[in-house]
Specification:
Blueprint: H1 41-45, E1 50-61, E2 64-80, E3 97-111, E4 114-125, E5 136-143, E6 146-155, E7 158-164, E8 172-177, E9 181-182, H2 186-192, E10 200-205, H3 208-214, E11 220-229, E12 237-244, E13 249-256, E14 263-271, E15 277-291, H4 303-307
Parallel strand pairs: 9-10
Antiparallel strand pairs: 1-2, 1-15, 2-3, 3-4, 4-5, 5-6, 6-7, 7-8, 10-11, 11-12, 12-13, 13-14, 14-15
Length: about 300
């Protein structure tokens, strides 16, 4: 198995530092060794590139279905367990660093005259069998009324969620929740190992982007989860479904059974008491590109956007 110390030098190109104030005490039990869960994992995820997938998006907003684009950017990188940031110097404090699979998830659509842009980032340790919880989630939403920001940090006693908004009712709030699976980490856990996802009755912390669009409270919600074969490709594609007991919301993520378990789309429905389903959002995979995008920031590199159908 490939360990962090054996990663190729090319991986270092991924590890561009960022700065964030604050630190936290991490208990010894949270020490995580970054070990791939699949023999092919290192060859795919440690080659100095990110996987970028574009999706055709339909999103319900203000009672009407909007068309737009979604983008998923998956990449591995080192992460500080104590500071919850990507370290500037990988060689400093190596005992504090763990390899994570990061997902930047972007949804963009237009409501009448003005656009919405929502983005979440989740940082999930590669060795999920050593610690089942993601270390951090951040989420932002921008539209012409203003913008909001939320951050989930894993601490010894659970998740600390800080929320900032232009709405008076929840302008600056802090919520603490016990440890539970995050709705936002379903995507990264699926990419790491679909079998790591729980089945049956589960406890789920509300997704950050769902919270923004629905103004639902941050909470640990009860849900039922299961794997489903899909009609489109029952042998090569499956789906993971999470049905929330409160509100009738059902999230279904479709993915390829074969490694690296690429996400092929998703649907979000609300099931009425009568059993009738109402579509909230759906997305279908458009294009996938594996590229070191941070090295392609010149005008001539805009052609890569066309390959993803993002123009």
């Amino acid at each position: 198995m490939i360990r962090v110390s054996a990663l190729p030098v090319a991986c270092a190109l991924l590890w561009v530092g960022c700065v964030l104030d604050g630190s936290r005490t991490v208990p010894e039990a949270m020490s995580i060794e970054a070990v791939p869960v699949n023999a092919d994992f290192g060859d795919y995820w440690y080659r100095g590139a990110a996987e970028i997938s574009s999706y055709d998006l339909e999103q319900l907003r203000y009672g009407e279905m909007r068309t737009g684009k979604a983008v998923h950017i998956f990449v591995t990188e080192p992460f500080s367990q104590s500071r919850h940031v990507k370290p500037d110097d990988e060689s400093a404090e190596p005992h504090d660093h763990v390899t994570v699979l990061k997902l930047n998830r972007i949804l963009q659509f237009t409501t009448g005259i003005y656009p919405y842009s929502l983005m979440s980032s989740v940082f999930t340790p590669v060795s999920g069998n050593h610690d089942p919880h993601s270390l951090k989630v951040t989420a932002t939403a921008q539209e012409w009324c203003g913008h909001t920001f939320a951050q989930y940090d894993l601490e010894a006693d659970g998740y600390k969620i800080r929320h900032h908004s232009y709405f008076e009712s929840n302008a600056d709030t802090t919520v603490r929740l016990p440890r539970a699976i995050l709705e936002d980490e379903l995507w990264t856990k699926l990419r790491l190992d679909p079998s790591s996802l729980p089945v049956g009755e589960i406890q789920v912390i509300t997704g950050a982007l769902h919270q923004r669009l629905s103004h639902a409270p941050y909470e640990v919600a009860s849900a039922q989860s299961q794997f489903l074969a899909t009609e489109e490709s029952p042998s090569g594609e499956q789906a993971y479904e999470v049905a929330f007991e409160s509100g009738g919301r059902v999230l279904t993520i479709r993915y390829e059974v074969a490694f690296p378990h690429r996400v092929t789309g998703w649907t979000e429905d609300v099931v009425a008491a009568t059993g009738e389903r109402h579509l909230v959002s759906q997305a279908v995979l458009d294009q996938t590109l594996t590229i070191d995008y941070w090295n392609h920031n010149r005008l001539t590199d805009e052609s890569f956007r066309a390959k993803l159908n993002l123009d």
